[in-house]
Amino acid sequence: MVMAVGIIGAFSAKECLASSPGSGNLVQMVSKTRLDVSKGDIKIGPYGISGISPEGKRETQANSEGYHITGQTSTYSITIEEGVSTEILLENVNISQVDTDACALLIEETSRGNVTVILRGYNVLKSGSHCAGLQKSCNQTTCVRSGSGCSCGTLTIQCEKYQEGHVCDENCGTLIASGVNGGAGIGGGDGRKTNRIRIKGGHIAASGGYGGAGIGGGYFCDGSNVEITGGEVTAVAGEGNVALGGLEGSEKNLINGDCIVDAGSMGGLETRRGILLNGNSGAIHGVVHITKNGAVGILKDKELTREDGGRLVLPEGVFVTTQNTLRTVSADSVSENSGLKSDTTVSANESDSGETPGAQQENDGTDSASSSAKGIYGQTLEQLEVTDQAVEGGIAGTWSWAEEHPDKTYPIVDGTTSYTRVFTPEDSGQKEIRVKILPEISYLETTEKAKILSPASPDGENGWYKGNVVLEAPDGYQIFHSRSVGWVEELLVEDDRGSGDYEYYLREVGTNLTTGVKTIRLNIDSRPPEVESATVTYVDGSTRIRVKGSEDTTLTEQVSGMGRFYCLVVPEAKARVLSAKSVVKNKYTKDNTVGEFTYTDISPGTRCELYVVAADKAGNLSEVSTQTFTAQ
């Protein structure tokens, strides 16, 4: 992504040009406290701050108008404490903590404060081990099975020029943010979710460390409520996560505005309006207004299709071609008659529909021809078996793939992608013939299959796994599934997937030939059961306790099933807090597969404490259920 940046001149200590979030006004009389991160750590709290001004003065007074931060450092960082709502103007800030374990800019975990980061100039946030570049985590526990709702505040990132209807150009501020070892570029730290991030403008490039999203969740975690409504945004995933959003569980992520987003993979994302890019191509969603410099810069040579009735409103000096795709080019690279002119609204043409394998004639001449192709998923166009029929009338010429497919690489097969064959007559006076074909694709047949690499044997009971499982591709193959990013030799199946037939694909290394879906049975039950009830009754002088338990089926109904119950009764005077493992190991504990216990040695009138633990067949233990009763 091309990022041209204009640098605005320095302001005095009492600056007067700044934007207020959501105000729609560019100029307001406000006074932010100026701080220089190159002179020391900056900590912003609800009642006071710690930082040094560019003039060397120690600042301690909190400022409701916000803070204007400058400086370059590899020693110091910025921290915004829990509950603080503030506005931060970053001007040419460069923080590199790559050799430490510190975060360049940290919003304390699960903070309820709303933080707005305003970009001026060129800003870089490179964090240290296990941190996101700009870290905003929303769970104090690791993401797996946290189960907690998010009550954290919102992080808003915007350029200094932001106001309603603003479309970013080369003068908007820039932010480069990178995480390390599980940290996202912007979002969650190592093993942390994120929630509520809004990007309204600016040139932003965010890259995650291993397991972290570009913008979204940290190490193998989800990211939700990430919304992009403006600016030019590039998100690059760390291995094992997605570029934008997060893994399974991510939701309500949205692209909706005059924005250009380059992200190779996404989780929980909906695109309503904007231009979404992936490599050399992209899609226009809704009506998008793009500036002249944006159109000939970020979009130059990108082939765009129209999605959801998309339209692109181009400014003066930018042309488009109007066949089956839109291609933006600089004004001086096309002839006068090759495209539509300034400020033209380009509506979606009728796309091909109802197409079946075989040929679709595109030329309007009398000559006709047809082509067909067969191949195996993973081959390039050049590797397909193509049958080109002779042109009627015996016209001599050659067949080739159209230049609209310059790399000749066959993309992921979805059963609907068609390609164009071109017949070029030897006689220059004859018309070129173009034929659109939908190749017939099969899958690689092989008996090879993935095997379980770790744990070496089930870590639960009765053949069940109680945590993550790693699959290994057979020799000469790579493995892929819907939650992985790219093809790998070893594939992590997280314990939150539950039990069942796990689907994956294999690809032959070297040829890229790919199998159809394969399955492997994985018995995973990592969720503990619950004690639903424990009923005390009295029969013929004995105390009878009946226990009922249930499994957690919120992920899958294919659970291991209830295995046994543990019941411990002690005099109330000896009662104390016990863990599930302590109850199970206590010498007075009775275990029973049917959940019915009878005690004959409890004297009437004795006040007792009852401890009950349920265990499923995988060996997961419930929390301890306790109650007090008086024996009769």
What's the overall geometry? Answer: flat
Rounded radius of gyration (Å): 31 Å
Class from helix and strand fractions = mainly beta
Number of helices: 2
Helix content: under 10%
Strand tally, please? Answer: 48
Parts with pLDDT < 50 across at least 5 consecutive residues: 1-30, 140-149, 319-367
Termini separation: 78 Å
Look at the structure and give the mean pLDDT.
79
- What amount of the residues lies in strands? 35-45%
Largest sheet: 19 strands, mixed
Describe the structure.
With 632 residues, the chain is mostly beta strands. It contains two helices and 48 strands. The chain has a 19-stranded mixed sheet that branches. A nine-stranded mixed sheet has the order 4-3-2-7-10-13-16-19-21, with no helix packed on it. The relative contact order is 0.06. Mean pLDDT is 79; it is low at 1-30, 140-149 and 319-367.
Question: Which short descriptors sum up this protein?
Answer:
disordered N terminus, nine-stranded mixed sheet, single chain, 19-stranded mixed sheet, 48 strands, 41% strand, mainly beta
What order do the helices and strands come in, and which of them pair?
Blueprint: E1 33-36, E2 42-44, E3 49-52, E4 58-59, E5 67-70, E6 72-73, E7 78-80, E8 86-91, E9 94-96, E10 105-107, E11 115-120, E12 122-129, E13 134-136, E14 155-159, E15 174-180, E16 186-187, E17 194-199, E18 203-207, E19 215-216, E20 223-236, E21 244-245, E22 253-263, E23 269-278, E24 281-289, H1 292-296, E25 303-313, E26 318-320, E27 326-330, E28 345-346, E29 359-361, E30 371-376, E31 385-388, E32 397-401, E33 419-425, E34 433-437, E35 440-442, E36 451-454, E37 469-472, E38 477-480, E39 490-493, E40 500-508, E41 518-522, E42 530-539, E43 542-550, E44 562-571, H2 580-585, E45 590-592, E46 596-599, E47 607-616, E48 625-630
Parallel strand pairs: 1-5, 2-7, 5-8, 6-9, 7-10, 8-11, 9-12, 10-13, 11-14, 12-15, 13-16, 14-17, 15-18, 16-19, 17-20, 18-20, 19-21, 20-22, 22-23, 24-25, 30-35
Antiparallel strand pairs: 2-3, 3-4, 23-24, 25-27, 25-28, 26-27, 29-34, 30-31, 32-33, 33-34, 36-37, 37-39, 38-40, 40-41, 42-43, 43-46, 44-45, 44-47, 47-48
